[in-house]
Write a structure and sequence with these properties.
alpha+beta, Nucleoside Triphosphate Pyrophosphohydrolase, 7-stranded mixed beta sheet, 21% helix, globular, NUDIX_hydrolase_CS, NUDIX_hydrolase_dom, hydrolase
Length: 144
């Protein structure tokens, strides 16, 4: 018997000053990765594409509209869904840069602003999707 399939997107947001804008998830029973630091994003609805999903979800969750061309696809995932027994999770991870912190209104959880140098300090608090996206991002980031 096969389980359910969840499809969604998330985005690693980088502020205008180069810090990471992440979400401290609410610590509520119905919230996936509750109390962890994760990325903004969510589940696909209807026939929307992953890109349409990330544009909608980010706008809903940070109160700031980033058009589709601001998102760069950096990774795809498909595998076991740790939140659903016998479930499968499929999705795409995007990157958006130059997001103005002072224009955001976070509607779910709290914003967690993290300097890249502080990632090791918070590594135990990261949700799996955030860890996955950060591994991709850090491999791509030019070292200075």
């Amino acid at each position: 018997m096969t389980g359910s399939v969840r499809e969604g997107t998330s985005a690693l947001l980088v502020s205008t000053d180069g810090r990471l804008l992440m979400q401290l998830r609410d610590d509520l029973p119905h919230v996936t990765d509750r109390g962890k630091i994760s990325l903004f994003g969510g589940r696909r609805e209807g026939a929307e594409t992953f890109l349409e999903c990330v544009v909608r979800e980010i706008h809903e969750e940070i109160g700031y509209y980033l058009p589709p061309e601001r998102f760069e696809l950096i990774g795809r995932y498909s595998g076991p869904d740790h939140a659903t027994p016998n479930g499968t999770l499929r999705g795409e991870v995007f990157l958006a840069r130059d997001v103005p912190i002072d224009q955001l209104t976070v509607t779910e959880g709290r914003i967690e602003i993290v300097a890249i140098d502080d990632l090791e300090r918070i590594s135990d608090m990261l949700a799996r999707p955030a860890t996955f996206a950060l591994e991709i991002f850090l491999k791509r980031k030019p070292m200075t």
